[in-house]
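During the second half of the funding period, the structural biology subgroup turned its attention to how the target accommodates small molecules. The most pressing case was NDP, which had performed well in the primary screen but for which no bound structure existed. We therefore specified the complex as follows and requested a full 3D prediction, including the ligand pose.
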Amino acid sequence: MQILHDSDADLGILNGKTVAVIGYGAQGRAQALCMRDSGLNVIIGVRPGKSFDAAVQDGFKVVSVSEAAALGDIIHLLLPDENHGPVYKEEIADKLKAGDVLSCSHGFNFVFKEIIPPKDVDVIMIAPKSPGTEERKRFVEGFGVPGLIAVKQDYSGKAWDIALALAKAEGLTRAGVLKCTMEQETYEDLFGEQNVLCGGMVDLMKYGFETLIEAGYPPEMAYFECIHEAKLIVDLIYEGGIQKMNAVISNTAEWGEYYNGPFILPPDVKERMKESLKRIENGTFAREWLAEARSGAKTLKAKREAPGQHPAEIVGAETRKMFEKK
Ligand code: NDP
Ligand code: MG
């Protein structure tokens, strides 16, 4: 894959354009501040409330979503994914002009057809591969986080150049940007968070912790072993790959990895991962998640409470206090 940097992108294509950032949460705030610092004309469209006040406080022109959609040449959608469909239909669709650009940071709603854009606009994605706080911090430090860009509809014939310019304005081309399709980004993102990063990792930690305390080991020690130390291992892999991690841990730990890894996660786990990928690609996951979100998210809210009662979280809160500077 080709990695694109600052010299591949030209901000000039955005001259005289207004970027309407819709939503001012984790991503909206970080991306809007970076684009403004890069000299772009950025306005914010959001409903009244905490985000609205924060954007005013940060010195932006802040208007309703429909007004921002009418004023913007580039309408950059940064609402929670489950809200984009209804907000687009009610407040944005009839404000679009021919030649506008509809943009997002996660392809979910275009890929799963919650948003069906008109034929005479560009549809693009600029996805920082990072939480908003980290994106802003690295930008202020003079660098950036990596990102993905995609074009779903190229009405103007310049959609890639516009996506690259926006990525440059957010500092992403300082680190490097990859071109992909919205389908690739959407499916891979959902797959990663469901199978490895969030689902997957959390369950692995909990099973390890539970096994030790059910066998009578002290919970504080179980927390250190199965949860706390995960960060140290992941940091090593982040820095230098699995081989670096293996070089730093003891020979005993390394041998244990080869000896027990395939026993605890046998290769047939991949069969279930393939099923999960199929559910994502054929839209089953999206349909079920949107039905849950739009019927009051009762199951989500119940699940959100449950980890707080898990002994790993109670012991964890106590154990983490030991690391606070007194
Ligand atoms: P947040 O939940 O942090 O922010 C959402 C914003 O949308 C808030 O400002 C919220 O305002 C506003 N909002 C919600 N509903 C409405 C509505 N009906 N009308 C008007 N404004 C509304 O979301 P994120 O920043 O995390 O995510 C935004 C997008 O970025 C998503 O597409 C996500 O997939 C993508 N993304 C997220 C990443 C991340 O790390 N978080 C990384 C890369 C992409 P209020 O305060 O009023 O609720
Ligand atoms: Mg992700």
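Two results from this model are relevant to the next phase. The chain has two domains: 3-180, 198-323. Residues 107 and 182 are 5 Å apart (CA to CA).
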